[in-house]
Sequence to fold (702 residues):
Amino acid sequence: MKSDVTPLKWDNETLYLLDQRILPHQEEWVTVTNVEECFHAIRDMVVRGAPLIGFTAIWGVVLYLKNNSNASLDSYIERLNYLRTARPTAVNLEFEIDKAIIRGSEFHKMNGNWNGFYDEMVQFAKDQMTKLLEDNLAMAKTALDELNGRLEDRPWNVMTICNTGALACGPMGTALGVIEYLGENKKIEKVWVSETRPYMQGIRLTAYELVKLGLPHDIVVEGASNYLMGRNMVDAIFTGADRIASNGDSANKIGTGTLSIIAKYFNVPFYVVAPTSSFDLNINSGDEIDIELRDPNEILSVQGIRIAPNESTAFNPSFDVALAENITGIICEKGLISPVTKENLLRVVNQ
Amino acid sequence: MKSDVTPLKWDNETLYLLDQRILPHQEEWVTVTNVEECFHAIRDMVVRGAPLIGFTAIWGVVLYLKNNSNASLDSYIERLNYLRTARPTAVNLEFEIDKAIIRGSEFHKMNGNWNGFYDEMVQFAKDQMTKLLEDNLAMAKTALDELNGRLEDRPWNVMTICNTGALACGPMGTALGVIEYLGENKKIEKVWVSETRPYMQGIRLTAYELVKLGLPHDIVVEGASNYLMGRNMVDAIFTGADRIASNGDSANKIGTGTLSIIAKYFNVPFYVVAPTSSFDLNINSGDEIDIELRDPNEILSVQGIRIAPNESTAFNPSFDVALAENITGIICEKGLISPVTKENLLRVVNQ
Fold:
């Protein structure tokens, strides 16, 4: 299984990125031929979503090697450190750049040149994307099994927030990958899409992917979760995670924690879907997760039009934390963690 | 005390309504000279807010009488029933129309014509607005007493949703009237304003009033309530109500029920502020409250710009119900109902 939506293509030694800033109404590809163009594509949010930023960075390294086959190791490291600064808060970017620096340093010290390293990195980039596809597919299968065991045998109404589809991940999504897989298995009646203020990832990007997938969906405002769940209109909720603490507290897009409390109140199963690379076993709980505060103008203006009075200000935390006690289960490529406790989490992750 | 913001003026036998659809950046008045224009002004949301809709409807009756001094009683009733259908969830509209039909029927049957009824209704409309001002001031005083008894003696961080200020009520607000009064008593540190998607009453109208009042405020997205309350950044929440059932279940703007559950989860006091005219003792619980489903385009487009894919649809319930069990207290002009039970509610209302 592979999503119909492809945000990144490698073709004829060139990287093509679907410009997510102008979706859903325009589908345009940005051509990236060198590491500087890759930097700008990441910084200017042509691509977003932690895994996709990571993949884009790896292809940036590949492009550097293509254009600079005689570069010194120092130049290689300098340009990769430059690429790292495109989105300072994106963990996957840092992670992939660190790996590429270590790998490149070892290769260059052993061989004295870059001969063969370009091909190695092309293969590595492809392998990474294949691995994520396999992992996300494993998560989707786990989710289907879990719902089959818990819900009536009929198509379900599922809800999601933000965008966790192919647009965020590359080959296949996490939470939205689950929903895609449920759809392929004829288990989707309707998808409730939280519009995801302020950046509108739900209404712009998740809805775009659901249109491409042909899955029936209705967009709702965040405030509607009590209305929908109080009327038994939601069978299950799937969200992604940016970082999961060892006790299972999960940081994700602002609104996710709110959604988890409403779900708990109405006994609607609430699942976090994320690969183990999003787990941070060095922290004990969500209290230790730093939350990015973003530009208030993301709230105060929409599509460049100021909505709020000129004198008003806004407070714009970009993420929040769903507490473990409000999460029915965390689904990673190694299986289901449920109930969400530190013991269960470590058992599944370390198996 | 009277707010600096005036949403409705009666001058030279003409009704002028501040066009709330284009606030905060433009202040324009819509001229209303007959009952049909009054219907459209209510339906098209030139005015909104249950009490203001009620007052606008009374002035609509006045305008009908001005233009149709020889109308039959049947015509009078027919046109008032037409006006009643402008907005389904607002109890005040129904309430005022019912009263005007009864009052008009008695008058016409006794006198055989409308001579003098126009002047009587003009005076009635003015008296009603004076009464609401007095009632809302009584509610504000009750709220201050309640918080003084419950919270530390310092300025507080309070949260609200939608717009329940003078723009919603006429002379002075309900929940926002409370906040204004707390501000006058130096008890406001900051007001958290839920932006209130999809119609943006918070970011557009409440922020507009808070600017006029000079009260410090930050606008937040609906999804941020878990973030704020989980970090003890909210001392109390005040919301309005469009209709309150006899058990205390309260219908209000979509997102209010969601907010009440988050407040309960974090033990943040949550108050509904509404005059007894918003109480519907004929219904037992929120299940019996008819919720208006509005145009999906309110979600799909912002400021006339389509955000969602063209193929996507939205589901747009305009209100939801905060359950009595999640409301710390209901504050009406007769006092505080807390804990919120049918017995307490009837005791306060009938005193």
Chain A is about 40% helix and 20% strand. Chain A has a mean pLDDT of 95. Chain A touches chain B through 60 residues (CB under 8 Å).
